[in-house]
Amino acid sequence: MQLISKDLLGLKELSKEEISLILDTADTMRLVLSANSKKTSHLQGKSVVTLFYENSTRTRLSFEMASKFMGASSANISASGSSVKKGESLIDTARTIDSMATDIVIMRHQQSGAPHLIASKINASVINAGDGMNEHPTQALLDMMTIRKHKGTLEGLKVAIVGDLLHSRVARSNLWGLSKMGAQVYLAGPATMVPPGIERTPAILCSKVEDAVKDADVVMGLRVQLERQQSGLFPSVSEYARFFSISEDVLKMAKSDAILMHPGPCNHGVEMPTAVYDSPQSVINEQVSNGVAVRMAVLYLLTSRRNQ
Ligand code: CP
Question: In the chain, which segments carry CATH 3.40.50.1370?
Answer without folding.
Answer: 16-134+289-307, 137-287
